[in-house]
Design goal:
two-stranded parallel sheet; 2 domains; 208 residues
């Protein structure tokens, strides 16, 4: 039997070939892992960019809403403070009467709050209508029970406008009632005079 002798050079070549065959699958396995890592890195960067954009947008919204939010909070705090004052502050009735001794809006502390003063005035006007007060009679001759309904009938003025709670014995509400009744009597008088004048004209034109 013949023995084949392998030279050292051939052995080295075979060893290199075997090493190459073993190395090739390893490189094939590493390539997908690197690609996955690259994709993950890209996705992470994209998420970071989206997060940064969202944070920038949120900061812009906060900057825009900041003054509005502060204003709303200030109004809420002012309303809470006023509600506390309505139960603690007491304003006595000044001397005289509205239009003759003092200006009601000024002594009520609503000199620069005309809209609020008008809202209170409209509410009390509705209370007068519901109570059934007479338009042709002054305050002092009105029915006591009906006058009481202006203050007690629900919803009464103090429920709609807690600000009125600070006026001792509802004197501010009473002044509103007096003024409104006075205006209604004046309107009724003017209307009666106009109707009377019209009747006089009709009588002059009649042929007796």
């Amino acid at each position: 039997m013949a023995v084949t002798t392998v030279s050292p050079k051939a052995k080295n070549l075979r060893a290199l070939a075997a090493a190459k065959d073993k190395a090739t699958p390893t490189r094939a396995k590493k390539t997908p892992a690197k690609e996955a890592a690259a994709r993950d890195a890209f996705d992470m960067q994209e998420l970071r960019d989206q997060l940064a954009a969202a944070q920038a947008e949120l900061s812009a919204v906060k900057a825009k809403e900041g003054p509005q939010r502060r204003k709303a909070l200030a109004e809420i705090n002012a309303a809470v403070q006023e509600d506390e004052d309505n139960d603690t502050v007491r304003i006595e009735r000044p001397k005289g009467s509205a239009g003759d001794g003092f200006k009601l809006r000024q002594v009520m502390g609503l000199g620069d709050k005309v809209a609020r003063y008008r809202r209170i005035q409209r509410t009390i006007r509705r209370c007068i209508d519901k109570a059934g007060l007479r338009d042709d009679a002054p305050f002092r001759t009105q029915d006591i029970g009906k006058l009481g309904n202006v203050y007690k009938a629900r919803p009464h003025a103090r429920e709609k406008h807690p600000y009125l709670r600070r006026f001792v014995n509802d004197w501010a509400t009473a002044e509103f009632v007096k003024m409104l009744l006075k205006n209604r009597r004046a309107q009724l008088t003017r209307r009666t005079r106009r109707e009377s004048a019209a009747d006089d004209v009709d009588m002059e034109n009649d042929d007796f």
